[in-house]
Write a structure and sequence with these properties.
Helix 1 packs across helix 11. The mean pLDDT is 94. By secondary structure, the chain is an alpha/beta fold. Strand 10, helix 8 and strand 11 form a beta-alpha-beta unit. The protein starts with a strand and ends with a helix. It is 35% helix and 30% strand. The strands form 2 sheets. Strands 3-6-7-2-8-1-9-10-11 form a 9-stranded mixed sheet, sandwiched between helices. The protein has 11 helices and 11 strands. It folds into 2 domains: 212 residues, 3-Layer(aba) Sandwich (Rossmann fold), CATH 3.40.50.300; 46 residues.
């Protein structure tokens, strides 16, 4: 079973919930798909055993051959290159590594090279968690390429917990595309409600079942709760706005370590999810 933990905006407590769930059940594959700003290791403290470089293919052009590369520019939907007389201006940050230049360009005058875009770190952490984290190289825009490398490690018949990137753009959609259930983490504020609605819209269009965890309950109003009740959205849990929880969070301690009762609460959440999926 694959459970994705997502949020419509950053800072709502998505990683707090994802790591607490993993520590509560004690056995899972934990996948940090928030490759632009991974921070789950701060709470799970894994022992990293292996680091795998993630690369994509990018073309380079032998302009000294005098060949015409205009077909490459015409083929590229991302405008990653422009051909000006005998010169090729290439924008690597726009290139998606599709291999099209090799197909349509002059034979022998277009070559490819491997370009590093990030890393996948593999490790283990207590009690029995296999840990995977994607880390995008600074300056790179190939977020989904790093997520795709993480995808290859997933064992879907085991319990898999995916810590998604915030928002509702391509990286979030990629992170929930194969999940069996999505936990949406929000906060009881107007911004939280607005972004929760956007996330729900994405998941409904994808046909993904979901439930909501309200974090920092008590800081705003009750509009999020009213919205969920009105629209039949299951509220899986409410985490209070507690200064002591924030203190534990700031030093890398999880909800489970703050209060052992949360272990049972997150186990109950997993049971609720399993029941929903059976129904």
């Amino acid at each position: 079973m694959i459970i994705s933990v997502a949020s419509g905006k950053g800072g709502t407590g998505k990683t707090t919930v994802a790591t607490a769930l993993a520590l509560s059940v004690g056995y899972c594959q934990f996948m940090d798909y928030d490759v632009e700003a991974p921070n789950s290791s701060f709470f799970l403290k894994p022992y990293i055993k292996h680091i795998q470089k993630v690369t994509i293919k990018q073309p380079y052009f032998l302009t000294e051959t005098g060949e015409d590369f205009s077909k490459c520019a015409e083929f590229c939907n991302y405008n990653a290159l422009a051909v000006l007389k005998d010169d090729v201006i290439f924008f690597p940050e726009l290139c998606h590594g599709c291999g099209g230049c090799m197909l349509v360009g002059p034979e022998g005058a277009v070559r490819e090279k491997d370009v590093e875009v990030g890393e996948v770190k593999k490790g283990v952490t207590s009690p029995n968690i296999d840990y995977y984290m994607g880390d995008l190289k600074p300056g790179s825009m190939r977020t989904v390429s790093v997520q795709s490398a993480l995808d290859k490690a997933i064992i879907p018949w085991e319990l898999v917990i995916i810590d998604c990137p915030p928002g509702t753009s391509c990286p979030m959609v990629f992170s929930v595309k194969d999940c069996d259930y999505c936990i949406l983490v929000t906060e009881p504020t107007p911004y939280g409600l607005n972004d929760l609605k956007l996330s729900i819209d994405v998941l409904e269009k994808m046909g993904k079942p979901f439930g909501v965890v309200i974090n920092r309950d008590g800081i705003g109003d009750d509009e999020v709760e009213k919205y969920c009740i009105k629209n039949g959205v299951k509220i899986l849990a409410k985490i209070p706005n507690d200064k002591e929880i924030a203190k534990y969070y700031s030093i890398g301690e999880s909800l489970v370590e703050y209060d052992k009762n949360w272990k049972q609460k997150f186990e109950n959440i997993l049971e609720e999810i399993e029941k929903d999926l059976v129904v």
